[in-house]
Design goal:
Number of strands: 18
Strand content: 15-25%
Helix content: 40-55%
Oligomer: single chain
Strand order of the largest sheet: 8-7-6-9-12-17-18
Bound molecules: 5-S-methyl-1-O-phosphono-5-thio-D-ribulose
Largest sheet: 7 strands, mixed
Number of helices: 13
Radius of gyration: 20 Å
Amino acid sequence: MNVQGKPYRTIWPAPDGRAVEIIDQAELPHAFVVRRLETAGAVAHAIAAMRVRGAPLIGAAAGYGLWLAMRADPSDAALAAAAAALLATRPTAVNLRWALDSVTAVLRPLQPAAREGAARAAADRIADEDVAINRAIGRHGLGLLQGVWERRRAAGRPGPVQVLTHCNAGWLATVDWGTALAPVYAAHEAGIPIHVWVDETRPRNQGAALTAWELGQHGIAHTVIVDNAGGHLMQRGQVDLAIVGTDRTTARGDVANKIGTYLKALAAHDCAVPFYVAAPSPSIDWTLSDGLTQIPIEERSGDEIATITGMTAAGDTATVRLVPAGSRTHNPGFDVTPARLVTAIITERGITRPADLASLFSDCLQDDRAG
Ligand code: MRU
């Protein structure tokens, strides 16, 4: 996607072939910084510090992390140590484990001398596949938005299609195109008028900082709202549909996504607003069924709640405290929306009700359970 008119991915191998480069998301929206990562440890740190984030991008970054590990030392021990360090960075997005398992399965049978090249090829493949998957999600989701647009026109309701999204499941959360926002970009390209309600997404404000930034870069109309406003807008008929991403979806269609997603799904259910989840297959965990009890939920530092960072009028970055010094905080990073609240799941293979997800991917289900 474009940054000031220039096409970028969120991660790419450095031109000298010795490092990987990322768009540093901790600096957005106030600065656009490309950061060079030369070691697997630096990649692990970038994932943990959320300089790269979003389930698909975490997976792609982990693939490149293993490549950098193999550049330094292609031994079995180094491979196992790098995979363990990368896996420990963030527990909820299953894409991380999926990418590490995929690359490790390619490398293990090889002689050490062949591993660096094979790791680079495997990481490139994960990145390219992510782009292709997201474009397919965009094509399928476009049909939904087109349908809403046609119904609006038939009903004589003027104005753009109104989409609500939570967190950032746009191109910044993937290698390119995004998942929840891929249909929005496809609709925009197809000339369908569209407006996005952007949940700010406390505590890290991925909506206010990242979704608003990337939509702005592409000239897509959007409005940032506080996380508590979505239900109110739905009650007033100001939301046609909600589309969110996912960090881990179970075989029966329970969806872990950024904290606050569940409350939006509840409000959507109450207001009969369709609630869609854009789920690339690497974010589906076929080994799990009950998301509420089985998906590990990341617990993050309370400082993310107690403080807030932004830009001052003078143009400096400043962190200020919101919460009284003595108050405790609790900061789960994700929640689980049960399948019964999900209208449908948009995958690269098409759109399915949660109950039919497993039959759409029956080949993957068999492979995963066998392995
Ligand atoms: O903590 P984050 O910013 O990595 O969380 C991101 C989300 O919750 C996204 O919705 C999810 O990863 C899907 S991204 C296509």
